[in-house]
């Protein structure tokens, strides 16, 4: 953290009008142990600020918060499954996958509490968030894609599609609380698998319209 803080301070000195922000990362089976994501929890960002001389700016990815929040709850409830994906055998991977997806399905109706607790902690850091990443998401399918490995299945869905389980009311509630500045960028990160360029453009417009409608209702 000290090394990262020092490098950020140097970059901030020479960046001029360019604003550098760090994105919330993910805790998941491929990003724990020796490969643990450095900035995946609010406490990680607070620790980094304690070593920095210049201000820290953040990019908050809502889907990353969803994944990390569910994963943290799963590991707290079933610590025996805190296992690095690369170190599991095939039979062990199937057992972990089955237990994990059973957990996400069972806890999906508690997403507002599970994710809300994390968003509350981010708001309490008082670190300015200048960018938000948003897309449709489905915790019931969070597992490694058989063809691409990453993104996970259930990630980067179009907003409002049938599989989308994102709680837009929760996002509408927390956006004003998370934004410490007068304005922030809200960036869609959809990835409609197998879509042509034209289909991607059309789905982007549909997703933008859906998001605007849901946030106006929040």
Overview of the molecule:
- Helix 2 runs parallel beside helix 5, helix 3 packs across helix 5 and helix 6 packs across helix 7.
- Strands 1-2-3-6 form a four-stranded parallel beta sheet. A two-stranded antiparallel sheet has the order 4-5.
- It has 218 residues and is α/β, with parallel strands linked by helices.
- It has one domain: TIM Barrel (Alpha-Beta Barrel).
- It contains seven helices and six strands.
- The mean pLDDT is 96.
Name its key features.
218 residues; alpha/beta; TIM Barrel; four-stranded parallel β-sheet; two-stranded antiparallel ribbon; 6 strands; 48% helix
- What is the number of E strands? 6
- In sequence order, what are the helices and strands, one letter per element? HEHEHHHEEEHEH
Gyration radius, rounded: 18 Å
Number of contiguous helices: 7
Strand order of the largest sheet: 1-2-3-6
Named CATH architecture: Alpha-Beta Barrel
